[in-house]
Write a structure and sequence with these properties.
By secondary structure, the chain is mainly alpha-helical. The chain has one domain. 73% of the residues lie in helices and 0% in strands. It has eleven helices and no strands. The chain has helices at 2-32, 39-55, 60-83, 91-113, 137-159, 161-171, 173-178, 183-209, 217-230, 235-255, 262-276.
Length: 290
């Protein structure tokens, strides 16, 4: 029983990371209706920036804030410089660009930082206050950080003018333009915000999997599964999907298929959702009159 509770707690912690990255995927999909295959690599590169700042002697949380700022600027710049010039090209062309971004960022990180495994520090203590071994300090800290990010994001999108303008631009860009909202700027801000959230996911996962250019490959697949399960057009559905995927991964990896086949569960989940309920659990079903 204790082992089961331990796996549940660990699954919720990892699910929070998948929720972060899944939320970043959903934010871009809402505004562009495209899946950003380079989302994990953008998070990985931001985490390397944090590693570099820590090596230079910057305190952890200062390095984390600087990394999130870097992620925001990088996401903003990618939308402006890479995707904006594409215009209304066919969907396949956009997919090729995303794949090119994936390969390019991964190769750039390997060229600059190398391919060796680097231990990444956790800002949280090894043990949880109270002496429980049900959950580690980093796992508990990850849950707290993810909840904090979700709360700040909710408040931003719900109660600020910029957040409301971003939501309106994603829901109905034509009407938003007529209302005087700079939709193109809101799109760039959405990319920056999604990259910032991805950077948080990278900072939380790096102490678990070690830092190297391919560290986000498996995490991105789980994040895809989370976003599809919760609903690719529903940010909070992606959060719920991330927690569900994290728990399923941990329990099935421990008691059913073993650690070697855990990643295949995410692929099965992705195919199953697309076949049975493409809109996800909390996604909207769009019905068009012909």
């Amino acid at each position: 029983m204790y082992s089961l509770l331990q796996q549940l707690a660990s699954g919720i912690a990892m699910g929070g990371i998948y929720a972060c990255l899944g939320l970043a995927l959903v934010m871009i999909y809402q505004s562009t209706h495209h899946i950003n295959f380079a989302q994990g690599e953008m998070a990985m590169f931001s985490t390397f920036i944090a590693f570099l700042l820590l090596k230079w002697g910057l305190p952890y949380w200062a390095a984390a804030l600087a990394t999130m700022a870097f992620g925001f600027v990088a996401g903003f710049a990618i939308e402006r410089l890479v995707l904006r010039p594409l215009g209304d090209v066919p969907e396949l062309s956009v997919i090729v660009v995303f794949i090119g971004l994936f390969v390019g960022i991964n190769s750039l990180a390997g060229w600059i930082f190398g391919h060796q495994l680097e231990p990444f520090p956790s800002p949280f203590p090894d043990k949880v206050p109270g002496g429980t071994t049900l959950i580690s300090g980093h796992e508990l800290g990850t849950v707290v950080v993810v909840l904090l990010v979700m709360g700040i994001l909710y408040a931003f999108l719900r109660f600020t003018k910029v957040g409301l303008a971003m939501r309106a631009s994603a829901e109905n860009p034509v009407s938003s333009r007529l209302a005087g909202i700079p939709v193109s700027l809101m799109l760039s801000l959405g990319w920056g915000l999604s990259a910032l959230i991805g950077a948080v996911a990278g900072l939380m996962v790096a102490p678990v999997v070690f830092l190297e250019p391919n560290m986000m490959g498996g995490v991105l697949i789980y994040a895809f599964a989370a976003a599809l399960l919760g609903g690719i057009d529903n940010p909070w559905g992606a959060v719920a999907g991330g927690l569900i995927v994290g728990v399923i991964e941990n329990l099935a990896g421990t008691y059913v298929v073993g650690t070697e086949l855990k990643l295949s569960l995410a692929l099965v989940l992705i195919v199953g959702v697309l076949l049975i309920r493409p809109s996800g659990i909390f996604g909207r079903k769009l019905v068009a009159r012909v």
